[in-house]
């Protein structure tokens, strides 16, 4: 800064031409000890926050006040919550919990699978002699299916197999789907679906249903960040980015549904052509549609904090060749805080450091990003818990 430059400005916005405008005031709504992770969707129609071990919703009411309601009351931890808005729903995770908030409420992703196989006995029936395997899964009223239980095996000399189902069932389960193999087979086909509480199912003829699609899968669990891209939920845990089964957000293939980075993942933010993944070793771009197709490339240095944000391209006010805002910039972009200020990640995997000549930041820390539009100024604001600037403070920029 030049010797005569203003260095300390509180509650004023500064335009590109140097004009100061007073910011709007604020008032305290409430004070609580264990509240954090306040967030709102782009529509600003509601807000979400964590209050101790509950996920709560803020909804505006007449007169400018806010009503509070609990959408999930039994969180496993009071840790920082991350959110991702997709197709009108909001996905969330806090390291342990992983769920979604919909217009009708909130629930965890996936259904807890059975950890043990069913017990089998002989009954009368018309199965050909041979060896059979039986297993089962849980089904919700919406048709979502759990991972398949371990299989149990039974030798049939003449008759059928009695499949004894365990007592108890997981949350949201409304039915049990029983699977069986063909004679001496190793593929499980649907035999019968019965209501929760049914004690046993008689397999007395060869199954003629669909082949199981959830065998060898596991329930998706929470992590440090969550996003949705190309029909899959992505969750980061440590240095691994896990991808759910396609269009089955509650299940994951632990053998192939992941990408490893060898460095702790701080955030992941999808765009049209791939996913930006910020790690302690740098920011990578995964180009492609799924884990088996991804082409991984390092696009810039490590981010300063463990958060990112997705913004409409128009929010960035990109200029056309005539120096005016380009109305054709519509695809979402990813934004994060890097060592030289904010970085924009475009849909193609190209990145741009918009403050590289003005800012130099130090060590990494925890924090959050927010997009704010007021008084004609569009701004991304970062709040960093660890002092990352040479002179301390927070970083912000106007686009």
What does this structure look like?
By secondary structure, the chain is an all-beta fold. The chain has no helices and 34 strands. The strands form nine sheets. Strands 18, 19, 20, 21, 22 and 23 form a six-stranded antiparallel beta sheet that branches. It has a four-stranded antiparallel beta sheet with strand order 3-4-5-6, with no helix packed on it. β25 (274-279) and β26 (282-287) form a beta hairpin. It starts with 11 loop residues before the first strand and ends with a strand.
The residue fraction in helices comes out at under 10%
Contiguous low-pLDDT stretches (5 residues minimum) are 319-323, 388-395
From the spread of the alpha carbons, the general shape counts as elongated
Note the beta-strand portion.
over 45%
So how many helices?
0
Instruction: Give the rounded overall mean pLDDT.
Output: 89
Distance between the termini: 20 Å
E-strand count: 34
What would you report as the Rg, rounded to the nearest angstrom? Answer: 26 Å
Largest sheet, strands/sense/barrel: 6 strands, antiparallel
What structural class results from the helix and strand content?
Answer: mainly beta
């Amino acid at each position: 800064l030049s010797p005569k430059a203003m260095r300390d400005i509180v509650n004023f916005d500064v335009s590109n031409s140097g004009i100061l405008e007073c910011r709007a005031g604020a008032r305290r709504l409430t004070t609580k000890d264990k509240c954090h992770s306040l967030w709102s969707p782009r529509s600003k129609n509601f807000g979400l926050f964590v209050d101790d071990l509950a996920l709560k919703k803020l909804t505006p009411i007449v007169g400018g006040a806010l009503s509070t309601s609990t959408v999930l009351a039994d969180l496993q931890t009071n840790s920082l919550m991350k959110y991702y808005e997709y197709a009108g729903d909001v996905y969330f995770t806090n390291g342990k919990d992983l769920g979604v908030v919909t217009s009708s409420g909130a629930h965890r992703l996936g259904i807890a699978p059975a950890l043990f196989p069913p017990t089998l006995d002989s009954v009368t029936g018309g199965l050909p002699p041979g060896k059979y395997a039986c297993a089962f899964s849980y089904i919700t009223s919406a048709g979502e299916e759990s991972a398949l239980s371990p299989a149990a095996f039974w030798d049939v000399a003449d008759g059928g197999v009695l499949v004894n189902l365990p007592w108890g069932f997981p949350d949201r389960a409304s039915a049990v789907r029983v699977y069986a193999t063909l004679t001496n087979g190793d593929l499980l086909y649907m035999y019968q679906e019965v209501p929760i509480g049914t004690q046993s199912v008689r397999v007395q003829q060869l199954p003629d249903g669909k082949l199981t699609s959830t065998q060898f899968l596991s329930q998706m669990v929470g992590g440090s960040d969550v996003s949705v891209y190309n029909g899959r939920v992505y969750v980061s845990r440590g240095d691994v980015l896990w991808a759910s089964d396609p269009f089955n957000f509650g299940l994951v293939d632990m053998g192939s549904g992941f990408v490893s980075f060898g460095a702790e993942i701080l955030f992941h933010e999808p765009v049209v052509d791939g996913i930006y993944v910020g790690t302690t070793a740098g920011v990578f771009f995964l180009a492609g549609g799924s884990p088996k197709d991804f082409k991984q490339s390092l696009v810039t240095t490590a981010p300063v904090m463990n958060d990112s944000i997705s913004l409409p391209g128009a929010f960035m006010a990109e200029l056309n060749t005539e120096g005016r805002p380009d109305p054709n910039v519509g695809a979402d972009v990813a934004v994060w805080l890097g060592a030289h200020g904010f970085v924009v990640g475009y849909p193609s995997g190209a990145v741009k450091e918009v403050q590289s000549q003005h800012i130099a930041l130090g060590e990494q820390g925890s924090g959050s990003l927010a997009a704010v539009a007021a008084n004609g100024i569009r701004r991304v604001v970062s709040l960093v818990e660890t002092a990352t600037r040479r002179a301390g403070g927070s970083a912000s920029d106007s686009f």
